[in-house]
Design goal:
Number of strands: 15
Shape: elongated
Largest sheet: 6 strands, antiparallel
Structural class: alpha+beta
Strand content: 25-35%
Strand order of the largest sheet: 4-7-8-1-9-10
Helix content: 10-25%
CATH architecture of the largest domain: 2-Layer Sandwich
Length: 248
C-alpha cells in the first residue's frame, strides 16, 4: 500500500468524438461530436491540466458515496431508467507532467505522470471537453508506480514457471525499493529488538525529537538497523510506535 502512494506514470489514448458512461470504451455512448482538435489546439491546453488541479472522478469508480460505491449508484440509476447519472464532487489531484506524444485522425496519445487519486479517464474526458469536443480513453497502460517500472516486470506465465525456483529471487526487488520515499530512522540493535516485539521508543527530549523529526513531519518512516528495515514507524503521544514490523 505504501508503494501505491508514489507517483504513477501512464500512457493513454484519447479517442475524440464520443463520450461514454464510463469514460472508456466499455461504456455506452452518451454524447457525440464531429469536432477533432489538432496538435496546436491540444498543446495549448496542456498547461491547464498540469500541476494541482480539481478533477471530478468518473461515476463508474470505487469511490464511496454515503457508504455505497459510486459504480453501484451508477448501475442503479441505469436500472431505474434515469436519464442522467449522478455526478461526484471534484477533488484536488496533482498532474506532475503531461506530454502529447502523437496526434492521429480522431485520437491523441499522451504520457502522464500523476499523484495518488488521479483518474486518467477523467483527465481524458476533461481534455476533450476543453478542446470543444467529447472523448474517452480507448487505451491505457500503466508504465510505473513509484520506483517500480514496467521494464522490470515479468508476465504471470513466467512467474508461474518460476514458482519454488531459486531463479525467482533474481527478479525480486528488496523491500527498501518500496520505501525509498519514506524518511529513514536509524536505530540501535537494542531499539530494533524492541520495535520487532511491538514495543515503543521514547520520542520526547531534544535528542529523540531531533532523531525522529522527519517521521513526525511525514507521519510515517522506516526504522533501519544498519541497512536492514526493521519496521514502519510513526510518532504518537511522545512515542515512536511500530506500525508494521518486517521479518527480515
Amino acid at each position: 500500500s505504501f508503494a501505491m502512494q508514489g507517483s504513477k506514470r501512464y500512457s493513454f489514448t484519447l479517442a475524440f468524438g464520443a463520450q461514454t458512461q464510463t469514460d472508456d470504451r466499455e461504456g455506452e455512448i452518451i454524447h457525440e461530436s464531429d469536432v477533432r482538435p489538432g496538435r496546436d489546439a491540444i498543446m495549448a491546453l496542456l498547461p491547464h491540466f498540469t500541476g494541482r488541479i480539481d478533477q471530478r472522478p468518473p461515476i463508474f469508480s470505487a469511490i464511496k458515496v454515503d457508504g455505497a460505491r459510486a459504480y453501484d449508484l451508477a448501475r442503479r440509476a441505469i436500472a431505474d431508467g434515469k436519464p442522467d447519472l449522478p455526478a461526484l464532487d471534484p477533488r484536488p489531484v496533482t498532474i506532475e507532467r503531461l506530454e502529447l506524444d502523437a496526434v492521429t485522425e480522431g485520437a491523441a496519445d499522451f504520457t502522464v505522470t500523476c499523484g495518488k487519486g488521479t483518474y486518467i479517464r477523467s483527465l481524458a474526458r476533461d481534455i476533450a471537453l476543453a478542446a470543444g469536443t467529447v472523448g474517452h480513453v480507448s487505451r491505457l497502460r500503466r508504465l510505473s508506480v513509484g520506483p517500480f517500472d514496467e521494464k522490470d516486470a515479468i508476465s504471470l506465465a513466467f512467474f508461474e514457471r518460476l514458482e519454488h525456483s531459486a531463479a525467482a529471487f533474481e527478479h525480486l526487488k528488496p523491500v527498501t525499493s518500496a520505501l525509498d520515499d519514506i524518511p529513514a530512522v536509524p536505530v540501535a540493535a537494542e531499539e530494533a529488538a524492541k520495535l520487532r516485539h511491538g514495543q515503543t521508543l521514547p520520542a520526547l527530549g531534544p535528542s529523540a525529537q531531533a532523531r525522529f523529526a522527519a517521521v513526525a513531519t511525514s507521519e510515517v518512516g522506516v526504522a533501519l538497523a544498519g541497512s536492514v528495515p526493521v519496521a514502519l514507524v510513526t510518532v504518537r503521544s511522545g512515542q515512536l510506535q511500530p506500525l508494521r514490523v518486517f521479518n527480515l
